[in-house]
Amino acid sequence: MSFMESMNSSENATRTAPSLPDPHVQQVLRAACEELHLLLERRTEIMKRIGSIKQTMTGLANMFGEDILGDDTLDLLDRGSGGRRSGLTRTCRVVLMEACRPLGMKEVCDHIEAKIPTLLASHKDPKSSVTTVLSRLVAYGEAVSTIDLDGRRVWKWVAEPKINQQEQHWIE
Questions:
Q1: How far apart are CA 157 and CA 77, in angstroms?
Q2: CA–CA distance, 156 with 172 (Å, rounded to integer)
């Protein structure tokens, strides 16, 4: 048998389907996969609940002043005076939390400029940086992204829909 023939036969041997692992290994993999799916579902539910609570607390702080919140609570809401107070990710979170409607990238940039005028100055391409952060917030389950009626991508902070007790229907 020539070298090429032996290479071809060994290539064909490696292309065949590998033997199935031990049934116990398959069982462990199935159980791990099921648990992972359940945990990911729970994480999504938890992130929505966290978003709803943060949005409520942010609204209360806006109405009654941040003095009603302790330093620990301000830090939880990304409004504290902690070390990285002016980070782009934190600021994007706060902008989305405080918004009463989905915002486009330019609107998020405008809000950031109004809050912390120097924050975007250090970024080579501020719009790209903001878009990247907003996409990461979607990936983290903290925000959702959709296309508005004008065909623009918009982002909205994730919060649970509120139920109107009297009318028993969902509102946002």
A1: 13
A2: 11
User: pTM (2 decimals)?
Assistant: 0.54
Q: What are phi and psi of 104, to 5 degrees?
A: -80, 170
Q: Retrieve residue 98's tokens.
A: 């405080």
In angstroms, rounded to a whole number, what is the distance separating the alpha carbons of residues 143 and 155? 7
User: What letters, b where the CB count within 10 A reaches 16 and e where it falls short, cover 37-51?
Assistant: eeeeeeeeeebbebb
- Give the CB-side neighbour count of residue 99, counting CA atoms within 13 A: 23
Domain residues for 118? 30-172
Residue 109 lies in a domain: yes
Query: Per residue in 34-77, pLDDT tens?
Result: 999 898 888 878 888 887 888 788 778 778 887 788 878 877 77
Report the C-alpha gap between 167 and 164 in whole angstroms.
Answer: 6
Q: Kindly state whether residue 2 falls inside one of the protein's structural domains.
A: no
